[in-house]
Amino acid sequence: MSFTADRLLLFGATGDLSQRMLLPSLCALHxxxxxxxxxxxxxxxxxxxxxxxxxxxxxxxxxxxLPEHRKPAINSFxxxxxxxxxxxxxxxxxxxxxxxxxPGGEGLAIFLSxxxxxxxxxxxxxxASGLAGPKTRIGLEKPLGTSLETSRHINDAVxxxxxxxxIFRIDHYLGKETVQNLLALxxxxxxxxxxxxxxxxxxxxxxxxxxxxxxxxxGFYDGAGALRDMVQNHMLQLLALVAMEPPAHYDATxxxxxxxxxxxxxxxxxxxxxxxxxxxxxxxxGNAVPAYAEELGKASDTETFVAIKAHIDNWRWKGVPFYxxxxxxxxxxxxxxxxxxxxIPHSIFGGKGAHPVPNRLVIGIQPEENITVSLMAKVPxxxxxxxxxxxxxxxxxxxxxxxxxxxxxxxxxxLLDLIEGDQTLFVRRDEVEAQWExxxxxxxxxxxxxxxxxxxxxxxxxxxxxxxxAERDGVTWHEQG
Length: 481
Hints:
This protein has 481 residues and is of the alpha/beta class. 35% of the residues lie in helices and 21% in strands. The chain is built from 14 helices and 17 strands.
């Protein structure tokens, strides 16, 4: 059912995600008048406070995390906010919450960010209190399980109260401008799509590097590790967008149909095609940082780094390896996609400096949003000894190319789509399950072959084995800085 919600219910409203992302995003949408004045926002969490207390809490968070040019809108935004204390396991609390949210209205959007163990009780409470009716949609923040089995269990619980067209599974990477721009790059330019295949692309690299360590996520991260925390969702979604066939239309059904075809075409990973790592002590930006085990306070076999050589078994990508790499405490913070094109079949230039280098396309997602195409060009000169060539970058920085529009964080787009009911940038159940099926296969490979994390220095690009994974194929990881 299509409707624009006039009420938004935020679970986990006093948490870190709410302070850093959700409240600032909603305030930015308010400042730009992108949500109607009638849209009210109800926060709920275990913290015991009243409306005034929540508004004071939100005021402090917005002063800390909202850009300066947005801050004049804070006071008017706070008028939208109310609050209801809730223990997710107490059924009676949902009755009070329903009273705060108000029955009726044009529609309710729920943003649910809670521990997986609370999903069933929360959904049951929403259903019992009348907050899961046909004019309610729900946004689900990860983690949505730790395996295919647990993911299905959570999805089954949600499906008992909400139909699939009212479930919005969130992967915040899909809200990033450059990730969406990947579709525009491919499908709005005749330059790229005809050569976006195995005949012209040699390999693809996707890197997500973080400089941070546990950052207060000790309990969650040590139980998840890099494979489930980063590869299962963000990296596989990036891979699917790179590899998908052209959808018939830019809409939720068409785009997600093509993504799931890619995910189902992923080949099971062999032991020699994966590397696990765990950071030891080292230095980040000149500052000494402890080893993972020291930061955790105990020994652990959880991986903080993963490298995988993946294959997509379909016509378009047959024989093209996709190298995935992610880790914590790496050299620099970066998320990028690198498309390595094949060499030219024959060089007509025979001069001393005439050695054409294969073209390369780099799509930077964070911290800088940019697109760089490497081209071969003639070095200026008289060329008495023959033409000299040099690789020249063609850079398109999104901030420079689009200086007018305000740069937005991903959650602004996703929250607005949740309120308005557009599922295009959200993940469908069959996508999630295809992702988990492949991830479970990787974990099975690790278990069957007793693959343990290899140590790497904090501040490096990961274990030496990850370098060897690529170099066996004559490939070098794309690294800058």
